[in-house]
């Protein structure tokens, strides 16, 4: 039997995968579906998502247009498919960035305490006390309105969450005997945090990641709803919902409902995965 | 391997006329129905009225599980498959939850290891104890409070009327245990079960708490079932000793008999560990078996230096080799 | 192993003090004036076993952790094999880490649950690399503590308490240390297993000429293993000496009270009156300079309010009590104390 030490990288795809494998459920299937759609959108979409066709305005769902068309005659089905790329990418990238920044800092804060902890705590609290949309407005105003900045906004909003969560799961571990043993083995703090602390705290953190992804999609959609982030006519679920909102009163329900369903399903998928992982760790 | 008992009284019941509690053939298991893991393997026990019975065992012995079974509070996934637990004439295994709730706290009470953890942190200790008193005896609030303060005083808590208005986290180890003991005694139960009541406490505090238990149980006339991994505690407190190992009862009898003239090789080993001869480091070789890994024979056979093939093949029955002194062993 | 010219102690502590800063407003207001470790002198001779005995609040665990430099002392000197180590920073101290190792109390938390036992042991072992191939060395270490080499591939949850303690010992010994500090090595184990681990430790000590510092509340283990006993109370040493002397002829009222408390079956009224330690821990307030046992000690008197010094009563046997220094306290192993009752002074 091998007695080789475990790889130093705490969250290689293999390790995360082996922990998550027992959790294969419909939520994962859904997520996989979304990923495939995002990847294959150009192949699946029957129409060009930004091709306007004023002859075909506001057509209800039919065999020619599965989800109908919007005010500009653009096929909603194609737009929903292409929008998956935007929303999913922003959510995943934003959360990944927040994870990569927030988790190590949170781990150091939790492990070392002291002024470092105080500093990051206060900063996190300040960031979190600003209302989300106000905060987003500030950033967009300062840095311009684009998809990249949108990712930045999503990331910054989530960093304090990961920081605090990591901190709180790291604190009870730092006094464990095996950490002391690592110190007695002359291990430097950074290696102790990476090799011993993080692997034993990943559960709740990974669970939080999926919940944050769900939240990120809502942020993206919400911001697009008020015109920030993704610029028209690029398809994005939130802006599509916004466009269709006034049309519902006229009976043209499909313009908002289908993108809305997409958001719902994505949030359910991410959230469900997050809750499953959390349940596994509560036991 | 369980031994089905057709009689409903324990063989040990012969130790006294009409014992307060006797357990016969109790089998407790966990895991899936078709492949159960036995935690208690047809265990026997008898507690005469007013007696102090100590159950001593190491991890996996089932000693705490026995207490849970008596109180009807087995954990999720653990079930009592067969056997009887006769308490004051009634079989506790057949009683509905409603009845058991009345018995718990009222006729059988429990003092557990970490007292503070078993108290409600949001209520003052006096309020909690008085509530238990009222629920089981129906007396007025004022009367219940008076009894509570009186009992706290008797248990050596200074300024009892003031301390009764404190919250559990204000009490330190030894004092907290006294509060737990008060909770257990307030309704004058017939049987007090103390499950590792002093484990984790400092030696000087442990001695105090044991004295409190000793004095208060004696004063109330209740019977005591003391569960401990520490043979020295059992020796100091009990008149009857039961030795359990891996879910089976190996020896039972008066403390003087079991501790000075032990019949089971396991008991002999434990006694040597407790009081090693000068210059010797005493232990029993081997490791304690995991539940579910035992075969048909005596659970101690693997570690016993006197084990024979007969020992490994068949679990010995409980035999009375001396007056009131039973042992489960193939050897004399 | 270093070569040592004279027989100076392997480890020497002088005036070591460590206080933990209270956190939170409430804690600060009610904070004790007393440091966890409050001015300790200690000397360990190579090849011996010294036991640190005390109840909660005694500071014995903190002291153990100061010795292995898991914490830094606030004051005092720690001299290891002639070298002062208390002021060294982690980098300077690292080469010495292989000479001082620790075995922990709780087998369930002394190993990283996300790694195999082998990986954990290797981590420590690499402090002292040598020519022997790692895997072979690992296998040999495990065999030496009575575990099959296949245990290297197991995770902590797949092993029993006793096995994990053996693995912990293997880990500590993997670097061939001079000093092994053991914090309650058998307290979390079953009674029939405790002796196995103690026997193993005794055997390893003989074979490798190890020095042990055994921190424990288990007096049985102390009797079986220790050459010297140091009894601590609220951060101070109250009695120390050869084991037979301290246990056979205890001089400090706390030691007597502790032995009495352990002797559960030896209760009698007279000893109860003269020997039993009453009440519970009282943390002294700022300004209290006297004996910290006042209020719990059956022999308290006014004079106990003055600072008490550690006095030498017999070669190597010291106690911190004026009564002991004046020869008022004889050993309490027999039910009847041999002191004249009128000598016991006023009891508060």
Task: Break the fold down into its secondary structure elements and pairings.
The complex is a heterotrimer of chains A (283), B (332) and C (348).
Chain A (H helix, E strand, L loop, with lengths): L12 H8 L5 H19 L31 H37 L1 H16 L2 H12 L3 H24 L6 H8 L4 H9 L4 H24 L11 H12 L5 H29 L1
Chain B lengths: L20 E10 L6 E11 L4 E5 L6 H9 L6 E10 L2 E2 L5 H7 L4 E4 L3 H4 L6 H13 L3 H14 L5 H4 L9 H13 L5 E5 L7 H18 L2 E6 L2 H7 L2 E6 L2 E7 H6 L4 H10 L34 H5 L4 E5 L2 E4 L4
Helix pairs in contact in B: 4-5, 7-8
Chain C lengths: L10 E8 L6 H5 L7 E8 L4 E5 L6 H8 L7 E6 L2 E2 L5 H8 L2 E4 L13 H9 L8 H11 L16 H13 L5 E5 L7 H18 L2 E6 L2 H7 L2 E6 L2 E7 H6 L4 H10 L6 H6 L36 E4 L2 E3 L2 H4 L23
Parallel strand pairs in C: 3-8, 3-9, 6-7, 7-8
Antiparallel strand pairs in C: 1-2, 1-4, 4-5, 9-10, 10-12, 11-12
Helix pairs in contact in C: 4-6, 6-7
Q: Give a count of the beta strands of chain B, DSSP E runs of length 2 or more.
A: 12
Summarize the amount of helix of chain B as a percent range: 25-40%
Rough outline of chain C: globular
> Could you name the ranges of chain B where pLDDT drops below 50 across 5 or more consecutive residues?
1-7
How far apart the termini of chain C lie comes to 53 Å
What profile does the largest beta sheet of chain C have?
Answer: 8 strands, mixed
Tally of DSSP helical segments of chain C:
12
Shape of chain B: globular
Output mean pLDDT of chain C: 86
Q: What gap, in angstroms, lies between the N and C termini of chain B?
A: 23 Å
Which percent range describes the beta-strand content of chain C?
A: 15-25%
